[in-house]
Amino acid sequence: MDRIPILRMGKFLLVTIQIDLYDRLATNLESDLIQAVNKTEARGVLIDISALSIVDSFMGRILGNIGSMAKIMDAETVVVGMQPAVAITLIELGLELKGVHTALNVEKGMDLLKDRIGEEPEETEDDENSTE
Amino acid sequence: MKIEKEQDVIPFRNRVKEYAVKIGMSLVNQTKLITAASELVRNMLKYAGGGTALIEVVSDNRNSGIRLLFEDRGPGIKDVDLAMKDGYSTGKSLGLGLPGARRLVNEFDIKSKPGEGTIVSILKWKNG
Predict the structure, then answer these.
(1) Has residue A125 got a pLDDT over 50?
(2) Which of B26, B31, B34, B85 to substitute to test the interface with A, most A CBs within 10 Å?
(3) R_g over Cα of chain A
(4) Assuming Cys at both sites, which of A45, A99, B18, B27 could form a disulfide with A67, CB separation 3.0 to 4.6 Å?
C-alpha cells in the first residue's frame, strides 16, 4: 500500500505531498501522522501542499482533521505552499481550513512553528508569518 | 468514463484537465472546474456506489467551455433543495459538495428521482 513519507526533523514532522491523493492515501496520512506525533512527541507538523493542483472538500477536511487532532496532542500544524488558484477555489467552495496555520513556503512555515512553540527562530529578519 | 472506485477519481480529474488545457482555459478556471468535478465524482461514489461521467467540449459563437455530465443509478436525493444548502449532509462530510460545486461553475443542473438515480450537469466557460 502506498504511503506518504513522514520525515522527522528535531521537534517537527515534515510531510511533502507530491501527488494527488486518492481517499485512502489521505486517510492513511491522517492516521499515520497522528501516530507519528504521539511516537516522536513532535511539537509541530508541517505539510507542504505545493504540488497539489486541487484541494477539494475531502482533502480540506483531512487537513483540518490533522490540525485539530494534532492540537489535542499538543502539536501545531502549518500548511505551506498552497497554489493561488487552489486558494481562490477553496474560498469559493466555502472551505476555510480552520484549525491549521498557513504559511507561504516551507521556510516561513518552519519559522511560524518555531515561533508558536516558543523557540527562537534562527533568522529573525522577517516576521510576516500568518496567524489564525 | 466509468467511475466505480475511488482510484478512478484522479484519472478522471486528469482527463478533465487535459480537455481544459486543450481549449485554453485559465488556470484558476481549470482548478475550479476540476475541484467541482472532484466533489461530484466523490458524491457519486459515496452515495450511489459509482456511475458514469461524460466530458464534453462545448462552444457558442464567442466562447468555449467544458460540460461534465454525471449520471448514477443510486438511491437519488429526496429533497434536492435541501441537498443544495450549505452545511447539509446526510453523510459525515462538511456538506459543501453540491453547493460548493455550484459556486465554482457557470451552469449547474441537478435532476434526481428517489429510487432511480441522479444526473448532475455542470458547465464551465473558458473565460468567465
Answers:
(1) no
(2) B31
(3) 14
(4) A99
C-alpha cell at B11: 484519472
Assigned CATH for A6-116: 3.30.750.24
* DSSP for residue A45: E
Spans of all domains in chain A: 6-116
State whether CATH 3.30.565.10 applies to domain B2-125.
Answer: yes
Domain segments of chain B as ranges: 2-125
Contacts 24+ apart (CB under 8 A), B10-16: B10/A20, B10/A22, B12/B37, B12/B41, B12/B53, B13/A20, B13/A54, B13/B37, B13/B38, B13/B41, B15/B55, B16/B55, B16/B66, B16/B68
Distance from CA of A85 to the nearest CA of B (A): 5
pLDDT-based confidence at residue A132 (cuts at 50, 70, 90): very low
Are A81 and A87 in contact by the 8 Å Cβ rule? The answer is no
Any idea which of A19-28, A58-67, B118-127 has the lowest mean pLDDT?
A19-28
Q: Which residues of A touch B (CB under 8 A)?
A: 20, 22-24, 53-58, 60-61, 83-86, 88-89, 92-95
What pLDDT, on the 0 to 100 scale, is given for residue B105?
94
Min CA distance, A24 vs chain B (Å)? 8
